[in-house]
Amino acid sequence: MRKIPLFLIYLRLIIGFLLLGLSIIHIKHYEVIAISLFSLGLISDIFDGIIARKLNISTEKLRRLDSNIDQLFWCLIAVATFMQYPNFFINNVLSIIILITAEALTYLVCFIKFRKEVATHAISSKVWTLIMFATLIEVTWKGESTILFQLCLYVGLVTRLEIIAILLLLKKWTNDVPSVFHAVRLRQGLPINRHKMFNG
After folding, report:
1. Where are the domains of the chain?
2. Mean pLDDT over residues 78-103, rounded?
3. Rounded to two decimals, what is the model's pTM?
4. Which of 81, 83, 146, 152 is 20 to 30 A away from residue 184, measured at CA?
5. Using a CB cutoff of 8 Å and minimum separation of 24, what contacts does 104-112 make?
């Protein structure tokens, strides 16, 4: 039982490389297979933390591993999607560059200040993950996305700014900080309430 969270984390890594491989060989019915694997990856992302907290094994090491593999998972999915639908990326290249830059900036700020990677797991970031998931499904199914992608872009930028604010507020590296409000309390030396299901 105690190895289930670790299995779910590494499952996303396997799914990411599998999607990349399927994209390279241009397998038939890629859309259905890819969406199924996206969904499996999202489910594993939701439940790895919940199960770890339920088993009281949600350690800093596990949360850092979760963040690193999450990042690689989404990068692999992005590359696989680009190989299948390059026109979408070409048509939205500026927005995508801005979003990637904002994401990279969060890691840069965290590394400069704490010499560690980001693992805030903010609630807003979880919302953005769901929007990004929906956007990828639309792109995979239709080859394009307009309104949903714009929502993904703006929510992504807002959540990246919140993460940077959290990092700047924290006096020491801390994982699972739900929001800026919680970061302010931590800076003041006050306890914070974390939801058992999401940031326990």
Report:
1. 1-84, 86-200
2. 96
3. 0.89
4. 152
5. 105/160, 105/164, 106/160, 106/163, 106/164, 106/167, 109/164, 109/167, 109/168, 110/167, 110/173
